[in-house]
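Entry 14. Structure prediction run on the chain below.
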Amino acid sequence: MAFLRLRGRRSAGALRHRMTLEAPVDADDGAGGLTRGYAAIDHIWASIETISADAAFADNRPGARLTRRIQIRWRADLDTGKRLRLGARIFHIRSVADADERRSRLSLTVEEETP
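Output returned:
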């Protein structure tokens, strides 16, 4: 989804989803291992577009693999270890690209978790 243009500028209305950016947090599980959790680090506005949807099996359960493109304002702290949340929906970041190569916005390729 391209940003909407209004008199040569991007329309803020294109970024209509308020998402939570989460970073991994590892905690000792008491048995010599680690338990991975995620902690909210920021709230960002984003646009979401579906790229593809495929049938998939996870943990011997049928589901779907949903690949989406999320566009946000540019920021320097994103990497593939972080994830985004929209309500109960979780999006794992697979790639981060400077969409216009001017550090004004980022295009993220993500996979959405499905039950």
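The chain has a mean pLDDT of 85.
Filed with the rest of this week's runs.
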